[in-house]
Amino acid sequence: MPRVQFLGTGNAHSPPGRLHALVLIDGKILVDAPPTVLPQLRQAGVSPGEIEHLLFTHWHADHMFGFPFILLDRQYVSKPQNGPMNIYLRPNGKEILSNLSHVGFPGSLEGALEDDVEWIENESGSIGKSGWKYERFPVSHTPETDPHGYLLTHESGFTILHCGDSGPCEEINQRAENVDVILVEMGVPDFVESPYHHNPKEVSTLAQRFPKSTVLVTHNFSRGEGEMDGFEIPQLPESIIQLEDGDYLDISTDGSFDLINNRRKK
Ligand SMILES: [Zn+2]
Ligand SMILES: [Zn+2]
What we know:
Shape: globular
Order of helices and strands: EEEHEHHEHHEEEEEHEHEEEE
Number of helices: 7
CATH architecture: 4-Layer Sandwich
CATH topology: Metallo-beta-lactamase, Chain A
Structural class: alpha/beta
Helix content: 10-25%
Bound molecules: zinc ion
Largest sheet: 8 strands, mixed
């Protein structure tokens, strides 16, 4: 059964109870690679060597600093289980990730960068033979990071719009109408008004505008459930689900889905 797991739901500050935002699909597709990607994968029982596809949204540290760690682990410990990793990224990304790897582990990753990576710069296509397709689209975030989101479509018909790290924008609105799930990164509280981030008010507006889609919130600025420190979890309309680390979606062959949500567990 296809599964979309949320291995982290926090913003760049990793608020109490939340690791950096990270999505794992079917145990082998990652969206982004935060600094703690290795422990996040291990907690989910997935070996870095099993990752076949890695899609990058943009070049902020909380979304990419884990890349050298994945490469290092695959080269020296877990070994690639199914050939090189396919890396889906913007044209400038190869240089950024190569430099990051050289800075992080000088002299140790040349082989891995040569043999364990396929750079894929197409803006849309199939994600290998996974049954998933992607379309990358530009979003509104710090321009220096070349920010993008992904529309992901499964062969069952299920669709999830990963908005990337973004403020409200037309590119999201254009795609949100007919998707099953909108995954939105709510990086800042209401007192921050920035064109580059969604705050709670803007997440509510998005949900009102697209009532047929399920809105899931990740990259949350607020503390996780049960934590005492940090920003309180904001009150949002009930239809909007603020994910917790470890939540996941199970998708059926007919494209319907169930959200397994830690907060709602009795
Ligand atoms: Zn971020
Ligand atoms: Zn960012």
